Amino acid sequence: MFADITDRIRANPPAFHYGASVTDFDVDGRPEFVLAGFGGPNRVLRWDGQQLWDIAPRSIADPERQTLSLIAGDVDGDGREELYAMHADTFSGPKTHPDRLFDHDPSTGRWHDLLSHPANRQSRNAVAGRSVAALDRRGTGRYGFFVANYGRPMGYYEMGGDGRLVDLAPALGLNLCTGGRGVWAGPLASDRTDILCVNEQGANFLFRNTGLGTFLEIAHDVRLADPDEHARGVTALDADGDGRLDVVWGNWDGPHRLMVRTPDGRFRDRATPAMALPSRVRTVIAADFDNDGYEELFFNNLGEPNRLFRRIDGEWRLGDPGPATLPHGAGTGAAVADIDGDGVLELLVCHGEASEQPLALFKAASAGNNWVRFAPVTRFGAPARGATVRLTAGGRTQVRVIDGGSGYLCQMEPTAHFGLGEVTKADSVRVTWPDGAEVMLRGPAIRTTHRVEYPRG
Fold first, then answer.
1. Strands 155-159 and 144-153: what pairing?
2. DSSP-assigned states of every residue in 279-295
3. Which end of the chain has fewer CB atoms < 10 Å from its terminal CB, N or C?
4. Sign (positive or negative) of CA dihedral 104, 194, 387, 19
5. C-alpha angle 120-380-114 in degrees, rounded to nearest 5
6. Paired strand residues for 159
7. Predicted TM-score (pTM) of this structure
8. How far apart are CA 187 and CA 196, in angstroms?
9. 234-292: per-residue pLDDT in tens?
10. 424 alpha carbon, distance to own chain's centre
11. Taking the mean position of all CA atoms in its chain, how far away is CA 101?
């Protein structure tokens, strides 16, 4: 399916990279890839029309730290996303370097760490974690960061009215403890932003949003606990075309899961034998790479071939990733974005942990298929991560959630990307924000990206 376009990365030395995320780092209306460097510099890759260039300032590059992920979200409501940096200098428990939260100062043009301010130092996450997700738990347009810690209670960091950052996990019922791994945030068990945290050395957690901004843990009740496996990457998609979100995650050297929703609101594993086949999985991505109108599933593995699954005639079948198979790749993180603005997604794959390796960049052949994209924003103008977008076209309804954090250590572009195949008209799109506000667009133009403003009045 994929073609190798790695040569479009201007400088690509072997390195240890873990998480990958996507945000409009320089606020020019176009996305950048943000990459976590482990014992080397973090990178921000910007498309200049021909190649990807590293534009990371020194403060963001932070080459002395061991960074696992950099996750974007507008924590202060200024309309520009901050970057939560998760560091790891130990496998579990206390660590030497606490996490950071980088904020851009418009008066100086520089990025600085909010968590290094004296008023915030006691709130810093100083224990080893794995994944982070940005979520708007109350629908205010201001985001907090959920941190999946390993061997210590989960954390949730949010800015109060006085500008201080506070760990609200104990007050919200989120401070459970296990081997935290992957996180996905969105309306899975309620119509607000819920949190699915997949774990190892213990059961998964599904925190259902009560609608009041607090949470109840219900994974066992809906059959998502999977207590005997060791999870890594996780994402959500409509796997069976019924218009409801289902869940897929990879288990490290264990059976991978495709959990499809049943009529009673619980889930049942529908992974085919080929999909369930154990692997040393890292990130799992759902995206319509070839714009045929159906999402593919990409399993990024460590030290063994990556896998691709396509939904054909209602069944999930093993596909051919082509050069993206990377049979000897030390896969860690991966992210997708339409980085060059042509309506076809790029797939960036990071490598590390086992050995230093270059980044890899891929693009699928779209066969001229049509597409349309929607970028909802908050009342402050930042990406509305956690918003749900439903598109009706060609007699089908597709659903996407603007990503707050998924895969494993990673975060996808904050845009709902829909392939249309040979369909030449989009009938309607409904955008629902985390607070339940909605906008309906009739007959949106295709082959373009629509910015969708938060409804006023």
1. antiparallel
2. B-EEEEEEE-SS-SSS-
3. C
4. positive
5. 15
6. 165
7. 0.96
8. 10
9. 999 999 999 999 999 999 999 999 999 999 999 999 999 999 999 999 999 999 999 99
10. 29
11. 18
